[in-house]
Design brief:
Length: 227
């Protein structure tokens, strides 16, 4: 009886997408389950139950800082008494549309820096990919589930051959505050770099991190915490 078969746990990918009418679609095969949830804030209780079943890979399609902050505020509980209380216990990937990063600018630099702060807080990865629909197909979800096998790409580069090539890949296990600050200091886009909002020192980064942490522990998910 010592050689009993121990089946591998089923893989579960939950894709939280922006576009379309609020809906839930589920499909699966012999080893995986895929949930595509559009307008996910409409389905908070359902998503909470999914996350309680077993460890999942969660893909969040970026829309805005406000929207993604509200997702983290609404879906994941924090406990101030616990160490590392903002780590969520799931593999989470934030997907940014290449159009938002294709032009190097103050806005695109600030966007990535803020997302990197959020990702470090929750243990997420950030990617950019042209065809998200392709990799949120049940036949192709291993690309997202096994992201750690991909090479880190901290700088956006559109050198892709295929539509599901990663144009950016920043795992939180690679990232750090120092690297976020270095990114800011290596980005000079105008004459007034002291007032452009790009993070170039630890104090500015710490202030934003504290604002986000205060937001997460606040009762109001609609608060504009960056203002």
């Amino acid at each position: 009886m010592g050689n009993e078969y121990d089946p591998e746990p089923r893989k579960q990918l939950i894709a939280l997408l922006n576009a379309g009418i609020p809906s839930i679609n589920c499909e699966g095969d012999e080893s995986s389950d895929l949930y595509i949830i559009k307008s996910p804030l409409h389905f908070k209780p359902f998503i909470s139950k999914l996350l309680q079943k077993h460890s999942s890979t969660i893909v969040i399609q970026y829309k805005s800082i406000k929207a993604i902050s509200e997702l983290f505020h609404s879906f994941f509980q924090t406990s101030p008494s616990e160490e590392d209380n903002f780590s969520l216990g799931h593999s989470i990937t934030i997907v940014v549309d290449p159009e938002q990063l294709s032009e190097l600018s103050v806005d695109s630099t600030k966007l990535i820096q803020i997302l990197r702060i959020i990702s470090l807080k929750h243990g997420c990865s950030i990617i950019s990919i042209k065809n998200l629909n392709n990799v949120t197909d049940i036949k192709n979800i291993d690309k997202l589930i096994k992201l750690e096998k991909q090479d880190v790409k901290p700088n956006f580069e559109d050198l892709s051959i295929n539509e599901d090539d990663l144009l950016l890949y920043i795992p939180s296990t690679w990232d750090s505050w120092n690297k976020i600050i270095l990114h800011g200091n290596s980005t000079i886009l105008g004459d007034d770099e002291n007032n452009d909002g790009i993070i170039r020192n630890e104090q500015d980064l710490r202030n934003i991190d504290e604002k986000y942490e205060d937001y997460l522990t606040n009762d109001d998910p609609n608060k504009d915490w960056l203002s």
